[in-house]
Structure formats: C-alpha cells, structure tokens
Amino acid sequence: MADADIILVTGVSGFVGSAVALKLAASGALVRGLVRASSARTNLADFPGELVEGDARDPVAMAQAMAGVRHLYHVAADYRIWARDPEEIVRNNRASTAAVMEAALAAGVERIVYTSSVATLLPHHGRPSDETRPATPEQAVGAYKRSKVVAERLVEWMVREQGLPAVIVNPSTPIGPRDARPTPTGRIIVEAASGRMPAFVESGLNLVHVDDVADGHIAAMAKGRIGERYVLGGQDVALREMLAAVAGIVGRKPPTVRIPRAPLFPLAWVNEQVARVTGKDPFLTLDSLRMAAHDMYYSSAKAEAELGYRARPYREALAEAIAWFAQAGMLA
Question: Which domain of life is it from (predicted)?
C-alpha cells in the first residue's frame, strides 16, 4: 500500500464498519481495517484490504494501526443496550475514542469521520429531532446512550482545544444485510419475521439502510465541516408499522395487540436477572422500555443540504435485512 493513501476503518467486522469499508474498497480506496482478535469474522470473508488486529482502547495498538494513515473512520463502539456492569459500556466507549483520536493526532491524520449516534440527541416531542438538540450525559437514557454522549463530547473538545480534524456523523437505526450479531433492531426483525412477536409497545424509530449510512460517512469525509455533526437517518416509522411491514414480507399476519409499557417492567427486570446468570443478552430490558417512551424520530435535512446525503425507502432495507437473515439461517 502507498502510505499516503491508506484509509483506516475501526470496527471493520461490525455492521456499520463493514459497510463503510466495503464502500470504500469498491471505490478503489486502499483500506486498512482494525479488528479485535476476539471479534467474529462473518463480515470479513474476502475482505478487500489489509486487516490488522488490535483493541481500539489500546494506545500502543492504535499508534501502530495509524502508521501512514491519511484518513480515519472511527466506527468501532461497544454497542450493547445491557451489560452486567453498565458502566463498562461507558468506560469502553470513552477509552476507545480517546485512544483512537490521540493516536490520530500524533500520526498527523489529515481528516477523520467519527461515528457517533442519534443517541446523543434529545428527542423532540411532536416532531423529529436534529443536530441542534445535544444531550448531556445526565439526560441520556441508559449506559449506551450515556457512553455515546460522553465520547462525542470528548471529540468535540479535542476539535476545539487540540485541532482534531474530525467530522461527526450520527446514524439513526441502521438495518440491512451483514447484521451478523445482530443489533437490537436486527433482533426485533428476526423475532418478528420468525413469528415470535405477537404484540408490540407504542413507539417509533428512524430506519435507514446501512449502506446509505456508509455513503453518508464517505460524503462527510469529502464535504463535512470540521466539528459539525450530521444526522444520517432515513424514515420515521412507528414500531407497529415496521412489524406489519416485516409480516408482509415474510407472509405472516401482523401483530395487532398493543401492550402498555408499565406491566412489562417486571418482566424486563426478570429478563435481566436471568441474563446475569446465563450471560446471554436479554431481549427485553429496562432501558429499552424507557427508550420506547419516546418516538425516536430524526431529521437528516442538514446532511442532505451539506453532504448531498440521500436514503432509500426503509422497506427496501427491511427486505434486504430479512433476506440476509434468512440466508444466514437466523430465521425460524
């Protein structure tokens, strides 16, 4: 590889990271992907670039990975809604962001796209939220959202105080192929497509194809303003509408029973206690119920105007996600 042309993507084995790396490689870029030794390699088969092993929290590993890098996409994150020790999620995401950004500064990386989340933005009751509504750590619901707020504020501070050349992108809820883990939303799709979600709570989310999110990352690298944040979203969709769309794609009857959230809190508590024993992530958590109290709707108008960002209809993303899950043997 010609050192001057290396693009480093962290979290390259993950859902969004693999999408970004594949898009870059398809454009002819020379991609270096950072992956932990313990990460699943489902999305790395025939990876079209150089793979290096390392932990994004490790300053030494990051200094080595950053050698000769011109552009950086820091996509890696501890994306868990639940953990035995919730503060572990906060520590991991802050430590990895600090190590990656400090290594990038030391290496003289020319330009950075940092993958944050709409989790760092306050919901706007009655209309979609946007970049003008940043949350404080105290306002964030749950450890994951708090971790992303803490990490994003660190990046902003480094931009202001240390000249970090970073643009921030805030994906909403990506869906589509290669959701190997799967993500919390991917789990909902799998359960619904398998006929295991006969009811729903009243909530809403913003769905976007993961490849459109990847395109948004690349546009942010080319056109984004340093220190600015850009929502990379798709369409606002009520949960009941999403479940009905899943049912239509797989030929099942859509759920029609709406369950109030309050009676589900004891069940979520029990699920979490079971998870502490089994080590398996609970499907229903206390934080997910708290989040469901708000419609998580967002506007991508800023990214559309400044980056030329566009997102396809969410049903296309949903269909591709279900097809991938089926091919991977994840549907009942």
Answer: Bacteria
